[in-house]
Amino acid sequence: MSTDISPSPDSTPLDPRSASGLELMQAWAANPGLDRPSIGRLLGMRPVAIGEGTVTFTVTPKPDFANPLGSVHGGICATLLDSVMGCAVHTTLPAGVRYTTLELKVNYIRSVALDADDLTAVGTVIHSGRSTATADGKVFAADGKLVAHGTTTCIILR
């Protein structure tokens, strides 16, 4: 079940040792004031929806994302995919259990202009086991066209 994000009056950070991955992700999404240094903050990722086994983030292209050809660098979509797929895995993990990306595969479909509207990425868990998890993800342009898609394998650190 996916939950749309709205600010919460509770601004107390959750302890990753006592909160599930889903609880941590929902708290982060609902309390932007709790933001801490992260790749999400660096790129300006914004959570749209968080649910068990699925997350959706958006990012707005900006000039700092340029590749030498003047369009959005492919690493932006790769990072966005790595984030939504990994965070989707995180939502399936109990308190105190961590994960990290073991493998990332990205397919690029079309380029993205630096002045494009928001990119939206959706990550969905395929399998979450004791020692590994897999997920897939898709990045869409504001017009709904597929920009990139990928898969990940994460190692579960118990």
UniProtKB/TrEMBL annotation:
Keywords, ordered alphabetically: Hydrolase
Signal as UniProt keyword: no
GO MF annotation terms: fatty acyl-CoA hydrolase activity
TM segment ranges: none
Domain Thioesterase: 70-148
Pfam families: 4HBT
Gene3D superfamilies, A to Z: Hotdog Thioesterase (3.10.129.10)
Similarity comment: family membership: Belongs to the thioesterase PaaI family.
Name of this chain's protein: PaaI family thioesterase
